[in-house]
Amino acid sequence: MKKDLHPTTYRPVVFQDEAADFAFLTQSTAQTNNTIKWEDGNEYPLVKVHISSASHPFFTGEEKIIDTEGRVDRFKAMFAAAEKRKAELANKAKKTAARKTAKADKAEKTEA
Prior knowledge:
The protein is an alpha+beta fold. Helix content is 43%, strand content 21%. It has 2 helices and 4 strands, in the order ββββαα. The protein is rod-shaped, with a radius of gyration of 36 Å. The relative contact order is 0.10.
């Protein structure tokens, strides 16, 4: 293993979740210029985070419900429209084939 690969400057740091108004004290090498006075009366470096276990949906259980019904309805509508187009093209092909057959029959009658 390489020597001096991992940082050795661990120190107590406060991480503060601004969205949930939650903070915790832990060891870290994160660099910051901000400080905060902690519950024990000491001043520690402060790292502000946007999300933590106090605000993440996995930990809080407040996941957003996805509109699956709307998605399914849209899929069904697109599928129905595709089936309609397919049927219209099949009918058009049948009519074209019928016209060609009628023209061929008419041509045979006029020749005979």
